[in-house]
TrEMBL record:
Recorded GO MF terms: carbohydrate binding; hydrolase activity
Organism: Polaribacter haliotis
Protein name: Glycoside hydrolase family 97 catalytic domain-containing protein
Annotated SUPFAM superfamilies: (Trans)glycosidases
Residue ranges constituting the Glycosyl-hydrolase 97 catalytic domain according to the UniProt record: 286-437
Length: 635
């Protein structure tokens, strides 16, 4: 049920007024729009404290706006809806905001119009631009984004950093020494109890932005990644500012999906999130009977058999299954001589396992993207891992959209890798987009991340949406001999289980061999019980520089994951998220007393406890380690 009605907010909306305000539904956040000598600017106040001041707004077009604007009119509304996600962090979501639209016209002989739309939520704000249909403008290019986030102090910040370790902590003004653009999400700590994050929502038609430190103190400016062609009637993506009292509140937020349109896929019954086996990192593993895994059908059948017996939903067949991935002659409508693709798909279907097939731009463009995706669907594949897009800017955004829509047409889910367009809440509109490698994925880029990076990525990259980090290593020793492992992997097996709870993704890709999981069957019991859809996501505690603890609910069952940096620590876990007056059995998968992320990675312990909503436990996390708990009610 939707409720839409007009609501006057803040200052009077007279046509010649130069200032307008919109408040969040709970009145704790206020956005004020001003025209300062004809220049559009905005301010943001949180609980009476100004955090953004005199931040410039606007776009530079090839048929440029004049430097001075006047306000023509404004309108406002309040909107509330409740909807259900096919899969996401939270299943049931409320979308409640107040919106203000200010219509501007530049002061020139041939005046051109620009709309700025603001939305105020209880957990953040957003704004975007619209160029309405008008006589003096038809087609144009967006060449620059003047949008600023000008803060009231030199706040500390951290940011995503593509497939490298995240940046930070740094001060805003220290960013002047960074020569390249800064990726979003960018998280800021304004005070002990105030955290902010900058990102983008609804990236569909125009180039996405990054951030750059400009000449103003305490200020980041949006930097679009190349010019974007457009026509009047367009609207840009949303520039967003998450607002919370802790970094965990930013991660819990539904702001991005709320800024996206409802699903465009009417029948979503075929869409399924879950856990996957993976041939790429297993390649080269030799088991005790002498069998060596390769990119071939016998190996794939072993992976399918394990998946079928252990509640694992998919097998991801990665690059080279149809020939060398960067060769112009590799045809993705045919498999290489080591793989019988039709037999693989037939066998997987018989065993109840879905197959995800790799594809990149080279094969898609040469052999026809729609032709290739139709062939995948005809074979019976359930998804695509799409890698190495060769374009950038608007072209890459449009290519991403084309892949998603064609995959939806042929009932295929899609996982984007290799510097994809950022997740932007579009999982609501296109729920077949189940993850992206918008992070440093484990053992990728020829090296593995260290424990502090997974904690950082949970608090930063994951704000953008589902990320594919390829967690779940069990056999750490001797991995370097495999062709696609490359180097030493730091971590602990208990932490690997915890990552599968902490890291939100529509596809959790397990990188290890079945034999390693079988050797630690008591530990893998946790993975076997992970549901392919959760109902709720809670950050129980943590900090970007130290640890994170997360609880996720599916029905009446709970899964808890906790991770620390290189520092060992003891954390206090309060079970007050459980239903009162109910007893639960808790299965704990923990670091052993002597576990260490470098020299004793595979040591772990398990135990069972009876707990309730009043239980408080002290959990000891080893250096670089973690803890995972499965909690079920006692009937």
């Amino acid at each position: 049920m939707k409720f839409i009605y007009i609501l006057l907010l803040g200052l009077p909306f007279f046509a010649n007024s130069q200032s307008y305000q919109v408040n969040s539904p709970d009145k704790n956040i206020a956005i004020t729009f001003n025209l300062n000598k004809g220049t559009p600017t905005y301010n943001v106040v949180v609980n009476g404290t100004k955090i953004i001041q005199n931040s410039k707004l606007g776009l530079k077009l090839n048929t440029a706006f004049a430097d001075e604007f006047k306000a023509l009119k404004s309108s406002s509304k309040e909107f509330t809806e409740n909807y259900e996600m096919k899969w996401w962090k939270n299943k049931n979501i409320q979308n409640h905001y107040n919106e203000l639209t200010v219509s501007l016209e530049d002061v020139s002989e041939n005046p051109k119009k620009l709309n700025i739309i603001f939305r105020a939520y209880n957990d953040g704000i957003a704004f975007r631009y619209g160029v309405p249909k008008q006589e003096n403008l038809s087609e144009f290019s967006i060449e620059k984004d003047y949008s600023e986030f000008s803060f009231t102090d030199d706040f500390t910040w951290w940011s995503a950093n593509a497939e490298r370790d995240n940046l930070g902590p740094l001060s805003i003004n220290a960013a002047v020494t960074i020569e390249s653009s800064i990726h979003t999400p960018l998280v800021l700590q304004a005070s002990k109890n105030l955290y902010l994050a900058i990102h983008e929502a609804g990236i569909y038609d125009f180039s996405n932005f990054k951030l750059r430190k400009n000449g103003k103190p305490d200020t980041f400016q949006c930097e679009v990644q190349g010019a974007s062609k457009a026509k009047t009637g367009m609207k840009t993506s949303w520039r967003t500012l998450f607002i919370g009292t802790s970094p965990g509140m930013l991660v819990e937020s539904n702001l991005l999906v709320n800024l996206n349109p409802p699903s465009k896929i009417e029948d979503t019954s075929w869409i399924k999130s879950g856990v996957s086996m993976w041939d790429w990192r297993v390649w080269g593993f030799k088991n005790k009977d002498g069998f060596t895994y390769g990119l071939n059908t016998p190996s794939h059948k072993k992976l399918i058999d394990f998946a079928s017996k252990n509640n694992v939903d998919f097998l991801l067949m990665d690059a080279d299954w149809y020939g060398p991935e960067f060769s112009d002659n590799s045809d993705p409508t045919k498999s290489n001589k080591e793989i019988n693709i039709e037999e693989n798909l037939r066998y997987a279907k018989e065993k109840g396992v879905g197959i995800i097939l790799y594809l990149n731009d080279i094969g898609a463009k040469k052999f026809g993207m729609e032709r290739v995706l139709k062939q995948f669907s005809d074979w019976g594949a359930v998804g695509v891992k799409y890698g190495f897009m060769t374009s950038g800017g608007q072209e890459k955004v449009l290519q991403t959209r084309k892949v998603i829509e064609l995959c939806a047409k042929y009932k295929l889910m899609v996982n984007f890798h290799d510097s994809p367009i950022p997740p932007s809440g579009d999982e609501r509109t296109w729920p077949n987009t189940f993850t992206r490698e918008y992070c440093h994925s484990q053992a990728d880029a020829k090296y593995s991340y260290y424990p502090e990076t997974v904690v950082s990525q949970a608090f930063i990259n994951m704000i953008s949406g589902p990320i594919d980090m390829c967690n779940g290593w069990y056999g750490f020793e001797g991995n370097e001999v495999r062709p696609r492992v490359f180097k030493f992997i730091p971590g602990t097996v208990a932490a690997e289980n915890a990552k599968l709870v902490v890291i939100f993704s529509g596809l959790s890709v397990l990188p290890d061999a079945p034999e390693n999981y079988n050797e630690k069957a008591d530990l893998f019991d946790f993975v076997k019980h992970i549901p392919n859809q959760f109902d709720e996501y809670k950050v129980l505690g943590g900090d970007i520089e130290s640890y994170i603890s997360v609880a996720r609910r599916q029905g009446k069952n709970w899964f808890v994951g906790s991770l620390t940096t290189r520092e060992p620590r003891t954390i206090t876990l309060n079970f007050n998220f459980l239903e009162p007056n109910t007893k639960y059995k808790a299965f704990l998968y923990e670091d052993a007393p002597d576990t260490h992320y470098i020299n004793n990675r595979e040591a772990y312990t398990t135990q069972e406890l009876v707990v309730n909503s009043k239980t408080i436990l002290e959990l000891k996390l080893a250096s670089g380690g973690g803890n995972a708990i499965r909690i079920v009610p006692i009937k």
